[in-house]
Amino acid sequence: MVAAVLGALTLVVGCGGDGGSGKGRRPAGAHVTIRVPGDAPTISDAVSLARPGDLVLVAPGVYHESVRIGTARITLRGASRDKVVIDGRLQQPNGVVVAAPGVAVENLTVQNNTQNGVLVTGSAKAAAGLPGRSGGYDTGDEPVTFLKSFLVSYVTATRNGLYGIYAFSAQNGVIEHSYASGGADSGIYVGQCKPCRVVVRDNVAELNAVGYEGTNASGDMFVVGNRLVGNRVGLTTDSDHQEKLLPQQGAVIAGNLIAANQQTATPEQADGGWGTGIGVDGGSDNRFFRNRVADNSSAGLVITSTTDIPPVGNQVVDNTFTGNGVDIGWTFPTPTRGRGNCLRGNDLRTTVPARLATIASCPLSAGSLSPAGRWATPTAPGGIPFTEVAAPGPQPQFPDALTRGATAVPAVPALPDTAGIPLPSASLLASGARVQMP
After folding, report:
1. Is there a domain that residue 124 lies in?
2. Which residues of the chain carry a pLDDT beneath 50?
């Protein structure tokens, strides 16, 4: 099949644009556009023909395949975000697997995969689709190998059995302008990276068990300007022995709208989380600032420990909390206790234990034992299968999808200027409103 395609391939020479076409040999050093189905009948065929710097441009249609990208610096782009659909039909683990650096995945929909919509990874075991025990991947004695540099942009990931968009053992990347729903574990997940140098920005995650999850994701890890509304849990950052590079440290969670995370028509996660905006489980040295955390029935922000990993030195600064069961709650049900966690400048009404803003005011020494309490938490109701989550509506399109050339993914992304990240307006609590970053 591929040999036949090679014989018929129409190459568009230049920087991926429409600078003339013709059959024949590729000029030395040329970057081309490979069109699906015009030049190759399937996305996988087109990717197999592509070389670094090429653009694979996919026409509207439903594609029943799992696409693996093993060549560096390819751009995979749909001509229409809503009408280019990679559908796993619940028969394959992943919609798109990115296993090479510098790859961009743009402007398409991935759905109905038993594990992930888009998986970006340097792990051979993860790329092979080996299942995790309870979400995520336990890669055993496989050495940590990072995929370095990636971009996932304007992607819709819905109704996937683990994660919508999953960066695992990957560094130097961006997940942006995307939409994730129906993730049976979480909509967007970043795991096992240190230093990550990963930016998750301007995404919408709703109707997932968890909107965003960062596990063992440490160092230059930015989650900024996202809408995490209507999940079971909005956001978590945690340490977990199932993955390597313990403990989780040094994420920045800023400028996000995190609200109403007690949606019943969602997949029920095994851990039973419900009604929580932000959860910190054994994560340390994270900074939470200028987030709007509203209407979460259990708690706006929870800090707790794993059985053996304490949360240390987390800072909660200049956030606005409204309408939560408890605005901020710290609880340590095991002997492992937090240390040095602190608050400053937040708009809040209730904390557990009481008067946290006074007794744990920033700055605190790393050795200062964090106070703890308990509160009545609502019981999580049963969920629905991820396959039954409501279908998403149309989402914003990648600009000039048909005329832009291939996307050059930087070796290291520009990291956000945290001073310029604003508090989301209360008006964004309206259904469908998106956070806009400056």
Report:
1. no
2. 1-24
